[in-house]
Design brief:
This protein is of the alpha/beta class. Helices cover 34% and strands 20% of the residues. It has 8 helices and 8 strands; from the N terminus they run E-H-E-H-E-H-E-H-E-E-H-E-H-E-H-H. Strand 7, helix 6 and strand 8 form a beta-alpha-beta unit. The chain binds D-xylitol-5-phosphate and zinc ion.
């Protein structure tokens, strides 16, 4: 059985029918909820914040994977723990003291993730990889759903997988942005463990079947 995971991104859900879309994910073969928090400073978009996450957590029955696209994320680590985040991912580019931030996330009882923008070299994580539970490789520039997948991602995944193996780390690899049924298999073959999918799931005619199909592709 495959341990590869599918994480629908709630950014692409219908916010006027949020409970319906959360229940759909609960009932589907999806593994995680991917929650994008954007501050309008680190990325050129503002998504949603604490009250919405609180509402999601009330209904979601699966792992809550929070992707912080915000500056100075240290300010909110405890807040996100209290709101029910299971995995908390910060951006490499937003953390001056990444090692300290990772320890703080773990001390608050969550798994610690680091996201890399498309221009950020995976080797920059060499000295901290053993402290990271999840590396999120951005396969689009963060800020918006529905963008096209950057092809250079495959070589980044392979390079990161080699680094994880070399260091004997237990780090998982997540891919975020432009994931669909055309690139899912190649991403998993390159070493990915978790695939985030927003538009591809929620803009499809039958999101439950789309998740099932993605799950089948990565098995
Ligand atoms: C982009 C977000 C992604 C986004 C993915 O900044 O981090 O999680 O929701 O959406 P799609 O799958 O539509 O590219
Ligand atoms: Zn994301």
């Amino acid at each position: 059985m495959s341990t590869k995971r599918i994480a629908p991104s709630i950014l692409a859900a219908d916010f006027a029918n949020l409970q319906r879309d959360i229940e759909m994910v609960n009932q589907s073969e999806a593994d995680w909820f991917h929650i994008d928090i954007m501050d309008g400073v680190f990325v050129p978009n503002i998504s949603f914040g604490m009250p919405v996450l609180k509402a999601i957590n009330k209904h979601a029955t699966k792992t809550i994977d929070v992707h912080l696209m915000i500056v100075d994320p240290d300010r909110y680590i405890q807040t996100f723990a209290d709101l029910g985040a299971d995995v908390l991912t910060v951006h490499y580019e937003a953390c001056t003291h990444l090692h300290r931030t990772l320890q703080a996330i773990k001390a608050a009882g969550m798994k610690a993730g680091v996201a890399l923008n498309p221009h950020t070299n995976v080797n920059l994580l060499e000295d901290v990889i053993n402290d990271i539970d999840l590396v999120c490789i951005m396969s689009v520039n963060p800020g918006f759903g529905g963008q096209s997948f950057i092809e250079n991602t495959y070589q980044k995944v392979k390079k990161l997988k080699a680094l994880i193996t070399e260091k004997g780390a237990a780090t998982e690899i997540e891919i975020d942005g432009g994931v669909n049924d055309k690139n899912a298999k190649a991403l998993v073959d390159a070493g990915a463990d978790v695939l985030v999918a927003g538009s591809f799931v929620f803009r499809s005619e039958n999101p439950t079947a789309t998740i099932q199909n993605l799950k089948k592709i990565v098995s």
